[in-house]
Amino acid sequence: MTDRYAVFGNPIGHSQSPRIHALFAAQTGQDISYQAILADKHGFAAAIDAFMASGAGPAKGANVTVPFKAEAFRLATQRTARAEAAGAVNTLSFEQDAMIGDNTDGAGLVRDLKHNLGCDPGGRRILLLGAGGAARGVILPLLLERPADLLIANRTAETAARLALEFARLPDCAGGPRPDGTGFAGLAGRQFDLVINATSAGLSGASLPLPPGVFGPRCVAYEMVYGRETPFMAQARAAGARVADGLGMLVEQAAEAFFIWRGVRPRTAPVLAALKGS
Ligand code: ATR
Fold it and tell me: Fold for domain 3-103?
């Protein structure tokens, strides 16, 4: 019997996850099926139920994308520490009597930075742009890497301040620096080694009011959006930064989910190359 997995979202047609997991399964010799399921905006739990009840093989897990990550968080009967910190779940594992919720987004970002881009967040001055779900999901994994500094900057300054305070309250700041929050105006005169764009501005083609000085020497600029050149990427390039988009994070968060489910860590480089080639 083939173990079954699926990604749930709305919309879901654009999802690369079925292709990524099929490539992981072929590479590691794992016998799984993985499909994309469009769930009704108000029917996430029902869609999960239907998936578990249907099909030939056992349903073993699911990935969850926009707009269901918060609902998956509530639906999970157990949650990992990183899912708790993120306030969102993107990976569910179906066990005998439990539905375990995890969040692999932050780990995916950190792995992409360290292993694919040669940019270890440890000791770096990090600027995180945005204070929504995407930003929240990566803060704990970044702090665990012990950067020199973590500043959260957001269009709405209060949201950044609130988010920073929430993580500053973690015991010992999870081993990292005490994060701080500001509006974009607070970036004047500041300089960073790693600038991560977790805003959704790029999706609407909007640019961010960043002083060019924020991109320090040998700075890496990371755009979480993928598949397009965003104004942030252009700004960073013009300021001399090394620029990456979020495709590597997408593949790495999938690899982390695959590892949780199957206990095997797939090699991501060939999968990333295959996605870039098409
Ligand atoms: P996500 O889950 O992608 O993080 P979200 O929770 O809606 O989505 O958060 C969107 C983030 O992008 C927020 O930080 C938002 O800033 P505000 O808190 O001020 O709304 C940011 N954002 C969206 N469009 C933006 C724009 N045009 N300029 C600057 N920031 C923008």
Answer: Rossmann fold (3.40.50)
